[in-house]
């Protein structure tokens, strides 16, 4: 392991991982079962959730998704009805439009068909590229988050502020980029992937560990 890494933080991360490894495995198994067993509406709710998360608190976004589902606005509400459910979500006017647009994108013969559309692609990388290209408001981070949450993100990274902050503190990266282009995202993801091999924590486990380190919980 390179000497430039912060050994104290790595030790902290490894200790956290040892203490919550089983919980991480259980959560990832839940995500896999979501894909296998859940309704199209619930799969779509994960997509909508990830569209809401940029620059907003994840719990606030999930609360809005729950309200959207309870009022049936997620599946059939108009833009105004969707907007009314987005409590505490930043840029909610834009994001309400995004939900309406992506809902139409994921319909076949008038019905939500997330599985069929996603299954038309192959690897997680190809699915992610398709999502970024076709879903307005969805970048690599959000697409990676969505794929992880439906059990299809085993070897891709969710490079949110918690992850980037810790990669910098550890010494994996020198600084947090002011903006992340698609090529920069892939570059950082590859750097993180190599780092996970060195510390022997799987990529899809490490981002949960780093989230837990910052927030004290395993969420979505």
Topology at a glance:
Elements: H1 7-37, H2 40-52, H3 58-70, H4 73-76, H5 79-83, H6 92-105, E1 107-108, E2 111-112, H7 114-119, H8 124-134, H9 140-149, H10 161-170, H11 182-199, H12 203-215
Antiparallel strand pairs: 1-2
Helix pairs in contact: 1-12, 2-3, 2-6, 2-9, 8-9
Mean of residue pLDDT?
Answer: 92
Beta strands, count: 2
CATH topology description of the largest domain: Endonuclease III, domain 1
Q: What's the CATH superfamily of the largest domain, by name? A: Hypothetical protein, domain 2
Second-tier CATH architecture of the largest domain: Orthogonal Bundle
Uncertain stretches of 5 or more adjacent residues: none
Name the helix and strand elements from N-terminus to C-terminus, one letter apiece. HHHHHHEEHHHHHH
Q: In percent, how helical is the residue content?
A: 55-70%
Biggest sheet strand line-up: 1-2
CATH class of the largest domain: Mainly Alpha
Q: Report the sheet-strand fraction.
A: under 5%
Shape: globular
- Write down the Rg: 18 Å
- Report the major sheet: 2 strands, antiparallel
How far apart lie the N and C ends?
30 Å
Category from helices, strands and their pairing: mainly alpha
Number of domains: 2
Count of alpha and pi helical runs: 12
What does the model show?
By secondary structure, the protein is an all-alpha fold. It folds into two domains: 7-32 and 157-215, Helix-hairpin-Helix base-excision DNA repair enzymes (C-terminal) (Endonuclease Iii, domain 2, Orthogonal Bundle); 37-149, Hypothetical protein, domain 2 (Endonuclease III, domain 1). It has twelve helices and two strands; from the N terminus they run H-H-H-H-H-H-E-E-H-H-H-H-H-H. The protein has helices at 7-37, 40-52, 58-70, 73-76, 79-83, 92-105, 114-119, 124-134, 140-149, 161-170, 182-199, 203-215; strands spanning 107-108, 111-112. Strands 1-2 form a two-stranded antiparallel ribbon. A hairpin with a 2-residue loop joins strand 1 and strand 2. Helix 2 packs antiparallel against helix 3 and helix 2 runs antiparallel to helix 9 (140-149). The model has no long low-confidence stretch (mean pLDDT 92).
């Amino acid at each position: 392991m390179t000497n430039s890494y912060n050994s104290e933080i790595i030790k902290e991360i490894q200790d956290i991982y040892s203490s919550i490894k089983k919980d991480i495995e259980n959560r990832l198994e839940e995500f896999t079962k979501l894909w296998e067993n859940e309704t199209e509406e619930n799969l779509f709710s994960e997509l909508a959730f990830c569209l809401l998360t940029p620059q907003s608190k994840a719990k606030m976004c999930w609360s809005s998704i729950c309200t959207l589902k309870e009022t049936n606005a997620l599946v059939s509400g108009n833009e105004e009805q969707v907007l009314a459910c987005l409590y505490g979500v930043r840029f909610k006017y834009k994001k309400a439009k995004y939900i309406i647009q992506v809902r139409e994108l994921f319909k076949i013969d008038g019905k939500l068909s997330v599985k069929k559309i996603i299954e038309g692609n192959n690897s997680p990388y190809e699915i992610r590229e398709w999502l970024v290209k076709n879903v307005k408001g969805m970048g690599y981070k959000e697409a990676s988050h969505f794929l992880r949450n439906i059990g299809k993100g085993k070897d891709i990274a969710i490079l949110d502020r918690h992850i980037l902050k810790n990669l910098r503190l550890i010494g994996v990266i020198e600084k947090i980029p002011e903006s992340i282009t698609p090529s920069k995202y892939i570059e950082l993801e590859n750097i993180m992937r190599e780092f996970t091999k060195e510390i022997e924590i799987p990529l899809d486990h490490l981002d949960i560990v780093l989230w837990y380190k910052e927030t004290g919980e395993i969420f979505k």
